[in-house]
């Protein structure tokens, strides 16, 4: 059994902690807030997963040093926009020869357009890094709903370690060498999930969602390949798989956020009602900047950008997409 450090006490970090603790691993979670740490330690609960009773072999602390001490595996599970600053704070406690870091968050750093593995590598140049992604709602992982994920890394030992540490009868882990593709698939699908929510908010139906997922995948693939990912990766778990689950499930905070926008809420009202980080809103602007720089034609991305930043009415946005010039399917 392993000693595992989880940096981040949100729903996904705690869900992974519950899964790994049930397998017998010893888990230490880092939290930014003492109140969250106290809730986990004293009441065995997490405010984001209120129905789940946390196993006794989970501890939580606000001290990086305490959480990272003796850890054999480190899971980075904080919102993407906080990744760099948090890594800066704990990197002094990392032993790069013994403590590989697995990125479990999904996003792109706004200021640099870096994927999160690039952020960590810049801060900890010799770190052993992997990225864990795929269709996985915290609410379901925490109650042992069968889930399949992919671990991407250039480090063969790290991939084997993650498979051996995570896999059981209700979690299966595949491996990939395409870190860039896996990271980008996870980040970019949030944008299409947001669009799916907008479509739900204005009353669209199943035909629309199927079209949005299909054409959204084309845009994810185009941008992802242009940024260095492998085409096949975007048809796998971290691309198509994650896209389906986030576009169609009520668990998805990105879909929920889009739905609120479609119903007429402002961005600030939406953030307040969702109550957790909305990665899609954070990533739409950077994805638009990247696609413009690369000269890509991504009409769904361009349209949702205009909804958020240029006051385009969502119903008008659908009309504009549907009446674009005729073309072959690509």
Task: Describe the 3D structure.
Helices cover 51% and strands 12% of the residues. Strands 3-2-1-4-5-6-7-8 form an 8-stranded mixed sheet, with helices on both faces. It is built from 15 helices and 8 strands. It is of the alpha/beta class and 330 residues long. Helix 4 packs parallel to helix 5 (116-123), helix 8 packs parallel to helix 10 and helix 9 runs antiparallel to helix 10 (237-248). It has helices at 11-22, 34-43, 64-68, 83-90, 116-123, 138-141, 156-166, 179-201, 206-226, 237-248, 253-262, 267-274, 279-294, 299-309, 314-322, and strands at 3-7, 26-30, 58-61, 73-76, 101-103, 129-133, 147-152, 171-176. It folds into 2 domains: 3-177, 3-Layer(aba) Sandwich (Rossmann fold); 180-322, N-(1-d-carboxylethyl)-l-norvaline Dehydrogenase, domain 2 (Orthogonal Bundle).
Quick structural summary:
With 330 residues, this protein is α/β, with parallel strands linked by helices.
List keywords for this structure.
N-(1-d-carboxylethyl)-l-norvaline Dehydrogenase, domain 2; eight-stranded mixed β-sheet; 2 domains; 8 strands; 15 helices; 51% helix; 330 residues; alpha/beta
